[in-house]
Amino acid sequence: MRNYFDEGIFRDSIIQKEEFLLPDYLPDEILHRERQLQAMADALRPLVKKSPAINLFIHGPAGVGKTTSIKYILKQLSDSSTNLLIVFVNCWQTPTQLGIYNRIIDEMKLPLPRRGLAADEIFDKILSYMRNYNRPVIIVLDDVDGLEHQEVLYSISRSNDSGSNDSRSNDSKIIFAILAVANNKNYLAQLDFRIRSSLRFSELEFRSYSAEELFSIIKLRAEAALVPGSYDDKLLLKIANSTEGGSARRAIELLWKAAKHADGSEKKTIMIQDLEDVLAESASASIKPELKTSLSKEEQLIVGLLNKSEKGLESSELYGKFIAKIPKSKRQIRNYLDLLEEKGIIVSKDAAQAEGKESIMKSRIFSLKSPGSSGSAGNSLSDSEPK
Ligand SMILES: Nc1ncnc2c1ncn2[C@@H]1O[C@H](COP(=O)(O)OP(=O)(O)O)[C@@H](O)[C@H]1O
Ligand SMILES: [Mg+2]
After folding, report:
1. Is the CB of 94 under 6 A from ligand 1?
2. What is the pTM of this model?
């Protein structure tokens, strides 16, 4: 009897090791991020000697290796020092103070009656653990713009301040290190002044990849995942050149889809036509493909809402429709709008001015920027072999 899950069934597939093409794969080698990896290592190194680290505010567009690089460097750090506690939080998934404290408690493996304890009390337990075990804690707040409130940052900043005045500070210190990550560079400026002055973030930027950089990234993936000879540099170049926004995530996705497409028609090699079909398929989807992979679901919702309205939407209307789908504060929604405007995907104008009235309330009208103007990687590569 034939087993449909037998390796043999896939023997003819172009994709030999699909895991190398999936979004969660953590590469052994990170290309073109030496400067950022070095900067993160330098910022965190003092922790090994139980000295305070430099807090980092990391920003850059989606898909440019922020999360991957952090995971990579933290793995190296935890391999070389066992006395650090690393807590990785995605703030879209865990947006509350209590949620984040619980994640820390989990990492500390502390038995805690979860019920009935207020956030402050849980935080006190965390601090006494840190004092007792003298263990610095690194908290990664990935997608930090998903946080509902800034309290977490505020509590941490205060505990750092009080720790440094502590007379016993030589043998037991409270040391938190924070890596906060956002797409929006302006997130830091919006933070409460007290938090900023106390946590003193250093900024670390991740820029979009150039087509040439994308080429080398997908080349490594193709070598790991695909049957040798099933693709050539010409295909990889075309993928690199077709990737909008300089996003490695998008480039790898295109490679994966093109391979699937070729597999689907039982070919032995991926043709340029496979890629073109994949690109055409995604172009016909209602939201542009590059937006789908480079925008958060909240940003996609806004684009979707604006897509449906011809004249654009006024702030309060937009907030209402947004909240009906995803519960968020107005402040958070504003943040997405800022992001989209910065990316050149939407535009806004003063609502009162638009009607010729004097501006009393700060209401704005948002609309999608006219097609054809959304940003692409820009620096295209020619078909000639890159060095
Ligand atoms: N420099 C790189 N080398 C290899 N793979 C990369 C690199 N940068 C990004 N990737 C891959 O691209 C995808 C998106 O990266 P990610 O770190 O999630 O981006 P971000 O957090 O900036 O949105 C992941 O699958 C990751 O493995
Ligand atoms: Mg990320």
Report:
1. no
2. 0.76
